[in-house]
Amino acid sequence: MEDNPDASASGSGSGEPPSSSSLALAPSDHPPQQPLSRYESQKRRDWNTFLQYLRNHKPPLALARCSGAHVIEFLKYLDQFGKTKVHAAACPFFGHPNPPASCACPLKQAWGSLDALIGRLRAAYEENGGRPENNPFGARAVRIYLREVREGQAKARGIPYEKKRRRRLPPQPAVSGAASSSSPAPAGPVDAAAGAVGSAGTTAPAASDTGAAEASSAPRGSATS
User: Fold this and answer.
1) Number of neighbours of residue 160 by Cβ within 10 angstroms
2) Which residue ranges of the chain lie beneath pLDDT 70?
3) How far apart are alpha carbons 97 and 56 in whole angstroms?
4) ALOG domain: from which residue to which, for each copy (predicted)?
5) CA-to-CA distance for 121 and 142, rounded, in angstroms?
């Protein structure tokens, strides 16, 4: 009887098909990357949008030659995608926070969206090799423009911008080593007077004048609010 060549291939030996364990993939040398946070994802999209804007600029503009004026031009370009109604000075609803009817005033980017956008682009510029002293998103002209947008939109929409005040906590009395003694020494005339002045000075805590702006970086909402 002739030998069946297929039988030898299917039997034990070198011709045996590999087991399922040998088909397992080797572990990767690099661990899987963690998904980006919402802020990081938005920052990457904003950065790619700005680079695309520079490529479409006429003439095309290199990132190294970008200045604060070009950043302001980019912010004005984004107004066409805005969703915030900003009433013109001649509009009857100018300064009205809740207009009773619609009007033909244009839609623009909200100040908060622009402020958060600049914060994200400022961080992305330096993360991509830009020098902090040459960062066009931190230029003084950009800060002035954002302040003008904030004030203009506050007047047009009737929404005043108010600084958030933080009340300073009253100073805590110092705990001396003599306070732990069971029989403290009586206070002298000078100490008693000083204690009276100190207690009177802590009755009315002073309010801080420092305020916090809305923003960046965002970061806040996306570039197209």
Assistant:
1) 9
2) 1-32, 160-225
3) 37
4) 38-165
5) 12
How far is 11 from 19, CA to CA, in rounded Å? 13
Q: In 3D, which of 141, 144, 116 has the Cα closest to residue 46?
A: 116
The structural domains of the chain, with segments of one domain joined by +, span 36-161+214-225
pLDDT of 36 reads 80
Do the Cβ atoms of 85 and 105 come closer than 8 Å? yes
Residue whose C-alpha is closest to residue 116's, from 87, 149, 161, 141: 149
What was the pLDDT predicted at 98?
A: 86
Count of CB atoms within 10 A of residue 27's CB? 7
Supply the pLDDT for residue 178: 47
Cα separation, 115 vs 137, whole angstroms: 10
How many CB atoms lie under 10 A from the CB of residue 70? 19
- Kindly give the residue spans of alpha helices, DSSP state H, lying in 18-139: 38-56, 68-78, 111-127
The answer to whether the Cα torsion of 148, 106, 90, 95 is positive or negative is negative
What is the number of alpha carbons within 13 Å of residue 225 lying toward its C-beta?
21
Measured distance CA(95)–CA(78) in Å, rounded = 23
* DSSP-derived 3-state class of residue 155: helix
CB 218 within 8 A of CB 122: no
What pTM, to 2 d.p., does this model score? 0.57
Distance in angstroms (rounded) separating the CA atoms of residues 142 and 214: 16
Nearest to 168 by CA among 116, 137, 192, 204: 204
